[in-house]
Amino acid sequence: MVTHEDVKYVAKLARLKVAGEELDRFAGQLSTILNHVDKLSELDLSDVEPTTHVIGLSNVFREDEPRPSVEREEALANGPEVESGAFRVPPILEA
Amino acid sequence: MNLLRLTAVEALKKMGRGELTSADLTEAYLAQIGRHDSDVFAYLKVTGESARARAAQVDAGAGDRAPLAGLPTAIKDVLCTRGVTTTCASKMLENYNPIYTATCVERLEQAGIVTLGKTNMDEFAMGSSTENSAYGPTRNPWDLERVPGGSSGGSAAAVAAGEAIWALGSDTGGSIRQPASLCGVVGLKPTYGSVSRYGLIAFASSFDQVGPITKKVKDAALLMQFLVGKDPCDSTSVDHPDKIDLPIDRDLSGVRIGVVKELAGEGNDPAVKAVFDQAVKALESAGAVISQASLPHIEYALPAYYILAPAEASANLARFDGVRYGLRAGSASDVTQMYEETRSLGFGEEVKRRIMLGTYALSSGYYDAYYGQAQKVRTLIVKDFEAAMNDVDLLLSPTSATTAFKLGERTADPLAMYLSDICTIPVNLSGLPGISIPAGLADGLPVGIQLIGKAFTENHLLQSAHSAELALGFDRVSPLIEGQD
Fold first, then answer.
1. Average per-residue pLDDT in chain A?
2. Is the pLDDT of residue B331 over 90?
3. Is B189 a catalytic residue?
4. Contacts of residue B353 in chain A, CB cutoff 8 Å?
5. In whole angstroms, what is the distance from residue B324 CA to residue A51 CA?
6. Which of B105, B157, B358, B433 could form a disulfide with B148 if both were Cys (CB 3.0 to 4.6 A apart)?
7. Cα angle vertex B124, ends B317, B449, to 5°?
């Protein structure tokens, strides 16, 4: 059972704001989905290896050669707030 | 002649012989978009002007034709296109103008396609009906009261409505095959790694794969010839072991097909089951050796997927923070508040739901029980497929347990919507290639069947699907194309 507190906690971790009647709705829906998902716990998987990737690739290496990259102006072109050749953000550290 | 009925292979032949210009073909599709897209809403953006210019360019260069020269193509809006807004059907990316083009699109452009526009989809490819688009739902060309499936609903509807000769989609849990099935067209999810994901806006990176949505199987093979191949910009892409061939006309003699018993039974709508059972008989008559196959852990596939895919999504979508691109909302004085307001305003309900589900599954105290357990279940599913395919060449199931459902029918119940993909999700968990082809109609709505192959056996899968298509003899098109005869 997912509670309002759980929803608030997860929303905070995910940097989402969830309030009011949304709390009820998401708590109910996430509970329903997780009830279905709880089926996974029926299985004893202590001897099973996890699969992280399906085609068996491990590390993929390439030569570390310098090459042209994105121009600064282009990289900034989609920025919602740009100043002096950089992305402008609200203060990150307290003054 | 109704140009909208031509397949890509046929149109290419006619253009090569000088019997048809790309300009005429492109105009025919743009005219159909003009007639019907205000109802269907397959496209988020139609790039008519550049399509016309491109077609004229192709026609002018007559002697030296690129291999796909002049074919009017629709691109799902999950794929970045330089200089053309790419929204992923989200408010978050309403004004996003990519500075690069997805590798798969670039390869097709080099091969000469004419891009008609960007197609509608469920926001960030999360959904099974295209109702989760922030810009409004796409409707099914066979019945405008019904959904086209999703998340590549715009691409499937565009092909079914005669608004593109073919289209690109992406498939994370069935997003190419399920809408193809519901719209009566062909949809292929290639083996994971076959097609570069560079420029595909990421949903769940260990599942996502780009693929073709076409009128016929042969067109899917033609498009695949130009999609596959290792890309230095996607380290999970590999060179396909085979050159992709165009299938030839032959029957299914000797092809061993296992019907997945867990997916072919009473869980299906009776009308879908009737079409499916009929299709199995038709394949058998065409020489296929039919047997029963089993995927014993398949009931755990959906629960595993709905942990793993949202977990990957919650990480992938962390990049939308209002700093480098996309929407920014909220106070200029508090960075956390800026993140929260941007993401709360920019993401729709389903995207938030999946981000929270994924975050929950990855959070401290739940990681082992959910994420770790789901990764192990993924191993069981992979092994199920390996075992089932020991004795057969291909597996067969319905693509969707129902035909196209009505708009609004499943939106209130997320789990009911998730269950729409029960036949397609296991294939993504295993990375195998799967194709949906139309098998017939049930109450006037298309029913698709799904063939599943071994990893990197696209040639065999496409050849068999083409032979199956011949055996099934399904030649109906949506009323919107029929209306132009």
1. 93
2. no
3. no
4. 26, 29-30
5. 33
6. B157
7. 130
Q: Looking at the predicted structure, is the pLDDT value of residue B250 above 70?
A: yes
Bridge partners, residue B441, by sequence: B446
Q: Give me the pLDDT at residue B116, please.
A: 98
For residues B57 and B69, the answer to whether their CB atoms sit within 8 Å is: no
Return the axis-axis angle of helices A21-37 and A4-13, rounded to nearest 10°.
Answer: 90
| B186 beta partners | B214
Q: Is the peptide bond before B397 cis (omega within 30 degrees of 0)?
A: no
Q: Could you give all domains of chain B from N- to C-terminal order, each with its CATH number?
A: 3-258+390-482 (3.90.1300.10)
Where helices occur in B335-420 by DSSP H, the ranges are 335-346, 349-362, 373-388, 414-418
> What domains sit in chain A, N to C, each tagged with a CATH number?
4-42 (1.10.20)
Beta strands A82-83; A86-87: pairing state: antiparallel
Can you give the pLDDT at residue A58?
81
Closest to B381 (Cα-Cα) out of A48, A74, A60, A6: A48
What ipTM was assigned to the predicted interfaces of this complex?
A: 0.95
Output the pLDDT for position B323. 96
Instruction: Check the CA dihedral B384-B386-B388-B390 and report its sign.
Output: negative
**CA-CA distance, B30 to B68, in Å (whole number)?**
18
Q: What pLDDT shows up at residue A59?
A: 86
**Token pair for B426:** 């296991």
Report whether pLDDT(B332) > 80: no
| B76 is known as an active-site residue | yes
Which helix (H) or strand (E) element contains residue B255?
Answer: none
CA distance B338 to B323: 9
Q: Report CA-CA distances (Å) from B231 to A1, B194, B201, B261, B314.
A: 45, 10, 16, 38, 25
Q: What is the mean pLDDT of residues B406-410?
A: 96
Tokens of A66: 């310098």
Q: Cβ A17–B356 below 8 Å, yes or no?
A: no
Report, in this order, helix, strand and coil percent for chain B, each rounded to 5. 40, 15, 45
Q: What is the DSSP letter of B9?
A: H
Q: Does A68 touch chain B (CB under 8 A)?
A: no
Backbone angles phi, psi at B475, to 5 degrees: -130, 25
Distance CA B135, CA B137 (A): 7
Question: DSSP state, B326?
Answer: S
**pLDDT for the residue numbered B63:** 63
Residues of chain A numbered 4-33 and touching chain B (CB < 8 Å): 6-7, 9-11, 13-18, 26, 29-30, 32-33
Number of A to B CB contacts under 8 A, please give it. Answer: 164
User: Residue A33's closest chain B neighbor by CA?
Assistant: B415
Interface contact A29-B414, CB threshold 8 A: yes
Asked whether B380 and B124 are in contact (CB, 8 A), the reply is: no
